[in-house]
Amino acid sequence: MKDLLGNKKAVAHICLVVNDIEKTSQDYADFFGIEKPSWFWAGGQNKEGTIYRGESTDAKAKLAFFNIDNLTVELIEPDNGPSVWREFLDKYGEGFHHIGFNINGMEKTLSLMGENNMPTLQRGGKEDSGWYSYVDTRDTLKIMIELLEGY
Amino acid sequence: MKDLLGNKKAVAHICLVVNDIEKTSQDYADFFGIEKPSWFWAGGQNKEGTIYRGESTDAKAKLAFFNIDNLTVELIEPDNGPSVWREFLDKYGEGFHHIGFNINGMEKTLSLMGENNMPTLQRGGKEDSGWYSYVDTRDTLKIMIELLEGY
Predict the structure, then answer these.
(1) Contact flag A10-B142 (C-beta cutoff 8 Å)
(2) Which of A12, A133, B87, B151 is deepest in the core (most CB within 10 A)?
């Protein structure tokens, strides 16, 4: 039996791309009945770099997180730099973007997924926070995923 | 502060619509490293009826569930009858369809959501199992939701 994820079988987060993170954050706060979280900038060129479709990118995005009982709902408003978020928003509009999983062993997991028709689209992160990779699982799983390590 | 969901703040499931539930179920089983679940038919005309956009419908769908650690991943392959699943699949293709929440008090929740620009798209279920409603929250939450009671 295959086991591509190879780790805890839990969805860490569900992520949406949006055009106006302030407005949609308020709508989610009203829906869940919780305080509207502050957003913050993520991404941008750092010493490790962000790689999108094989090229370095200085794309950034505003992020907001809603920590509910069993997982996190993440909102992303990307800037106009080339990224998996901007690509998706321009092509499909606002809405669901990916689900995220915490894993152990980024390199071996990406390698195994690559051998199974799941190419890596974007990678980034920092030594002092953690590392992420977007994997294009749309051909098989019909949605995109993000792998997280060290967060 | 508004609180439209008014209940436990947990995502019960994430649901995708697919064209071939057998194939995509195998791909998810390989991804998670778990056994492929059997699918079963749901929907169809029953004495309570299924209501889609205000009209009775005999649409059915094949359902498969992956119960992972913190939630369920649901796959739906609809038949060609009019339904929120078929509408979505024809318009957007395979992929993410909605997230589901367990609630208490379907009528008051649907009423409150309706007053907040979240109209009901489809309702169904059975006395002996439970009741569901699809609510169109795309204008505010940028995705659709399902409310579940009694399951």
Answers:
(1) no
(2) A133
End-to-end alpha carbon distance in chain B? 29
Question: What ipTM was assigned to the predicted interfaces of this complex?
Answer: 0.94
To probe the interface with A, which of B26, B142, B143 has the most A CB atoms within 10 Å?
B142
A contact residues 49-88, partner B, Cβ 8 Å cutoff: 68-71, 73
Nearest-CB residue to A16 (from B16, B68, B143) = B143
pTM of the model: 0.95
Query: A93-132, pLDDT tens digit by residue?
Result: 999 999 999 999 999 999 999 999 999 999 998 777 789 9
CA distance A125 to chain B (A): 24
The confidence band for B10, taking pLDDT boundaries of 50, 70 and 90, is very high
**Vertex B33: Cα angle to B32 and B35 (nearest 5):** 105
Mean pLDDT, residues A132-146 taken together: 97
DSSP chain B: ---SS-S-----EEEEE-S-HHHHHHHHHHHHTSPPPPPEEEES--SS-EEETTEEE--EEEEEEEE-SSSEEEEEEE-SSS-HHHHHHHHH-SEEEEEEEE-S-HHHHHHHHHHTT--EEEEEEETTTEEEEEE--TTTTSSEEEEEE--
Hey, is A34 helix, strand or coil?
coil
**Across the interface, which of B24, B32, B95 has its CB nearest the CB of A9?**
B32
15-54 of B, contacting A, C-beta below 8 A: 16, 18, 24, 27-35
User: Chain B contacts of A18, Cβ < 8 Å?
Assistant: 142
